[in-house]
Amino acid sequence: AQSVTQPDIHITVSEGASLELRCNYSYGATPYLFWYVQSPGQGLQLLLKYFSGDTLVQGIKGFEAEFKRSQSSFNLRKPSVHWSDAAEYFCAVGPSGNTPLVFGKGTRLSVIA
Amino acid sequence: NAGVTQTPKFQVLKTGQSMTLQCAQDMNHNSMYWYRQDPGMGLRLIYYSASEGTTDKGEVPNGYNVSRLNKREFSLRLESAAPSQTSVYFCASGDIGYTFGSGTRLTVV
Lengths: 113, 109
Known about the structure:
Chain A contains no helices and 12 strands. By secondary structure, chain A is mostly beta strands.
């Protein structure tokens, strides 16, 4: 069965510092992988996605993620965090046939001055 | 280009009352989904519809029913609300990546 693990429940970084959010997945084949962001009181917005090809994908808001098949990981990165990046971030894997996406439990990002 | 529209945005119910959450998408997606979000639990799938005329249970279907009215609309019904159904409900549509609505914050007292 598909599963997604986001090991960090909450991360705090200083504004201007770099960021890496971890995502590990379990999936039987080459997965589709996604990162979503949820600002307080809002719905989820797609940041980026990986289907195939180049393993480093660029997304919106200056985010990027790297697919590493050998580590079953799809970590999200940003070189310099802005206060407006404070939000909750969800990694997702799938779908397979008609089976829906499987989401991780999320990582809450706090940004301090 | 509204995307996914959910109504209402907020609702307070008394235990035992019923209500229907509405969701509509204008992106011609085949698949639609209902999730609930609770603190520390992430997103949990309640029901989904892979195509018009089909619905399937997700992880937490008990206490809910759904109707895929047509390709655009997918409603979620609580027949007899319970305090455990206090949550934020999200509708999504999409055949690979999903587009989410802005959510319904439901409180059952």
